[in-house]
Every structure is written in structure tokens, then in C-alpha cells.
Amino acid sequence: MSRHTSIPLVDLGSQYALIKHEIDQAIAHTIANSEFIGGPALARFEQKFAEFCHARAAVGVGSGTDALELILEALGIGPGDEVIIPSMTFAATGEAVVRVGATPVIVDVSERTLNIDPQAATLAVSKSTKAILAVHLYGQPADLDALSDLAKAAGVELVEDAAQAHGASWNGQRVGAIGRAAGFSFYPGKNLGAYGDAGAVVTNDQELADRVRLVANHGRTAKYSHEVVGRNSRLDGLQAAILEVKLAYMDRWNMRRREIAERYASRLKGSVEFVAQDARADSVYHLFVAFVPDRDRVRDDLAERGISTGVHYPIPLHRQPAFAEYVAKDQDKKWAADTAAERILSLPMFPELSNDDIDHIAEELLDVLQARSRRSE
Ligand SMILES: *Cc1c(COP(=O)(O)O)cnc(C)c1O
Question: How many A from CA of 196 to the centre of ligand 1?
């Protein structure tokens, strides 16, 4: 019997086992002191997370989706405005735009990195464009040189959807404060994950950070004094305490993710294609994504061999019913995102994977692909 009985796509349990003592203590402390909303752990975490991003300010909010929506709202983006977003992303990127009343303009991605194609973004700029919302997909920063130039030339904001990219860098600079502001998600499965929903807005612009905090906390300037109509989207004390513990491990965990990606790459090179890395990017590998033929069957074969995989994402945004009204009618042409959606396969990726696990996964994938190509000969 192989000792590889089953390998999950992500394993939050094994991470908890490693830091259980610290986490349990942080949770108990928060409850004992009734620091549920606001409190010292939140203030400490916000400061440490801003430092981690080499940015001036971080504001804890309810989720990554809220973070994006709050940034757009704080920038005054709303009805009549357009925001350019990539097609290969999680729905939240588009939701944030629609929720503030603006119009998402969905553009194609680069076929090699699957990040937003700067040329497609350039062609999509109109008089109504107010921002480019660039996603750092799978932990790899989008082309921030081209996008910064484009935003400057067009006089629009560059906002980063950094939900998958805590600690990633571009030309040696950490994401988060390269654009005007960035939205981070602490959804449990993200590189930095809470034990529930949580997110943060990061920016070098203190005024923007203050506006986000105002709106996210009922628009209040004092307990019962409300300056604007706000909402409730706060990072709670328990999640902040948990995130503070985990943040101390982030650099180590991201380093391990890079090692895992390198090992996958060296085992698969020449036989399997995978998402390309831009030389200017330093990814934190939220996911390691390969391109395989006959993807759904390969997935089933791997599952039979005890290896769980994922697909991020099977339906690009411009094919989603929810966003149909924002897509031009003549979309019969195949986008790079469409081609990718048929072939992408996310392999198990979490810092606790052993080298032995990685080699085993790579071997099984190569074996499954060989068996399939023999059968189709
Ligand atoms: C996870 C994610 C979000 C949303 O974050 P939540 O915390 O789940 O709301 C937004 N954009 C991308 C690219 C994501 O992966």
C-alpha cells in the first residue's frame, strides 16, 4: 500500500496542527477580554499587515469582495463609470464593480500567464473608464509596468485585486501599494487565511484608507455620529487575532510554496505545460496551475488515484450568466480565457506538502497523461 492514500488540494487542518497552541491562546485571550469588534489585536494586525505589504495603511474589512467594493466606492466610482477587469478571475472582481453601480468591462488575459492582457485593456479604455482592476492571478502579479503606464496615460486609477497574492512582488516591490489601493482576501483557503470571512484594504494613501474605514464602519465619526451613509464591513477581533498569529509565518509559508512550485516545474518540464512566470514577477503561488488535454477526465483519473485537484476557473467571467449584460453580443470568437478554461488544472498546493508528495503527484499526473495518450493512439 502506498502511504499516499489521499492528497487534498489544500489542507488547513495540517497547518492548524502546527500552530494550534498559539491560535488557541489568541482565541481564548480575545474571548476572555471581549475584544470582538475593534480592539488591540485588530490595530496590531492592521499595522503589521501594512508593514508586510510595505504600504502606509491597512484597513481590516469583512471580506476580500468588500475590500474591492469599498475601494471603488471610496474612489467615487459609481453609475456611468466603467472599470476594466480580466475575464479569468473569481466572480467577486466583477461583483465589486456592479455593486457600486459601475459597469465592468471584461477583457481577455495573456495566454501564458492568464493575467490581464495589457493590450486588451488598452483597447478597452473609453471616455467613461475610471479604473483598471487588475487581478494578481494564482499569486503572480499582473504586468504592473504596462498597467501603471496605461493608467497614467489614460488618467484612470489602477486598483489591485490582491486576494491571491499576499507577499508577491513585482520588480522587487510588494503588491498592495503599487496601484492606488489593493483589496486582499483572508478567506480560509487563501495564502493568509482567517477562520471565516475577512479581508483588508491596503494603500499608501492615508486619506483613502480613512474614507474606507469611515464607510465600512457605518459612516461614523463618533459612536452615534454618522457623517455619511455607510455600511458594516469590519474585520472582527477573533479573526484579527488569528491572522496576527499566522502573519508571522507568511514569509516562511510563501517561500515553501515557491519551493513546491519549482519542484513541480522541474518534475513536469518538457512533458506538461504550466502557467508561465513573468521574469519581473515573484509569485507566492496561491495555486500551481498546469495545462492538460482532456482536463476533466485527467481530473477524474487523478481523483481515483487519491489526488484532489481544482479548476480556477472553469467558466471565465465573460461567459457567466450573471455578467451577460456587460458582454458584447458577438462573442463567438474564442478568447485566450476560453481556451485556458478547458485546459487548466490546479494541483495540490499548500506549504505542508512534502517533497515526497510533490514527486508522487507529478509522477501520477505524468502516468495518467501517458495512459490517456496511449489509449487515444
Ligand atoms: C477570493 C477572491 C476574492 C474575494 O475574496 P472573499 O474574501 O472571498 O470575498 C476576490 N478576488 C479574487 C481574485 C479572489 O480569489
Answer: 13
pTM above 0.85, yes or no: yes
- Atom 5 (ligand 1): residue with closest C-alpha? 64
Please name the helix (run of DSSP H) or strand (run of DSSP E) that holds residue 200, with its range, or none. Answer: strand 199-203
CA 138, 140, 143, 148 dihedral sign is positive
The reply to whether ligand 1 has any atom less than 6 angstroms from the CB of 64 is yes
Helices 40-52 & 237-247 angle (0-180, nearest 10): 40
The helix/strand/coil state of 191 is coil
Structure confidence at residue 373 as a pLDDT band (50, 70, 90): confident
Ligand 1 pocket residue status of 135, Cβ below 6 Å: yes
pLDDT digits (tens, 9 = 90+) for 214-239: 999 999 998 899 999 999 999 999 99
Q: Select the more confidently predicted residue: 4 or 133.
A: 133
Burial of 221 (0-12, 13-18, 19+ CB in 10 A): exposed
How much is the pLDDT for 362? 98
The dihedral region occupied by 77, where left means phi > 0, alpha psi between -120 and 50, and beta the remainder, is: beta
Query: What is the pLDDT averaged over residues 136-145?
Result: 98
Q: In this structure, are residues 357 and 348 in contact, taking their beta carbons and an 8 Å threshold?
A: yes
For residues 209 and 58, give the distance between their C-alpha atoms in angstroms, rounded to a whole number.
Answer: 7
Question: Which one, of 74, 77, 48, lies nearest residue 60 by Cα?
Answer: 48
How far, in Å, is the centroid of ligand 1 from the Cα of 125? Answer: 25
1 pLDDT above the threshold of 50? no
Q: What would the mean pLDDT of 142-148 be, rounded to a whole number?
A: 98
Mutate to test the pocket of ligand 1, among 72, 83, 87, 90 (most ligand atoms within 8 A of CB): 90
| Percent of the chain as helix, strand, coil, to the nearest 5 | 45, 15, 40
Indicate whether residue 138 lines ligand 1 (CB < 6 A).
no
| 232-258 mean pLDDT | 98
